[in-house]
Amino acid sequence: MDVSTSSVAAWCQENKLRAIGGVWVSGLAASMAYNATKPGMKTSVKVIHSRLYAQALTLTCLLGSAAAEAYDRKYGSAKDLPDDPFLYKAPTHVVK
Fold first, then answer.
1. Which segments of 1-96 does DSSP mark as H helices, in order?
2. Would the pTM of this model clear 0.85, i.e. be above it?
3. Are 92 and 62 in contact (CB under 8 A)?
4. In contact, 61 and 20? CB cutoff 8 Å
5. Using CA atoms, how far apart are residues 6 and 9, in angstroms rounded to an integer?
6. Helix 16-36 vs helix 43-75: angle between axes, to the nearest 10 degrees?
7. What is the pLDDT of residues 37-96, one digit of tens each?
8. Which of 27-33's residues contact partners 24+ apart within 8 Å by CB, and which partners?
9. Per-residue confidence at 19, pLDDT binned at 50, 70, 90?
10. C-alpha to C-alpha distance for 85 and 89, rounded to whole angstroms
11. Which of 14, 17, 50, 62 is the most buried (most CB within 10 A)?
């Protein structure tokens, strides 16, 4: 299976929320595995720390996604789809 960096970047650009959710889940799993190796902590503290680490990683990913979106919009590499429900379309005529 040949997966290039550009195809992964294109998938992440098309599926931003799935990519950020995947980062959260993988960050939570990695931090749970990391905290499991610490012997002097209670389980509840390990879970709380794992959630905080994953949340920080997710916020960083969201900020990066917002920065990439702003860069794309500023330099014109983002394509505006005509059926984008979040794209503002000014009214073309006034109804009296």
1. 5-14, 16-36, 43-75
2. no
3. no
4. yes
5. 5
6. 150
7. 988 989 999 999 999 998 899 899 889 888 888 887 787 665 555 566 677 777 777 776
8. 27/53, 27/54, 27/57, 27/58, 28/53, 28/54
9. confident
10. 9
11. 50
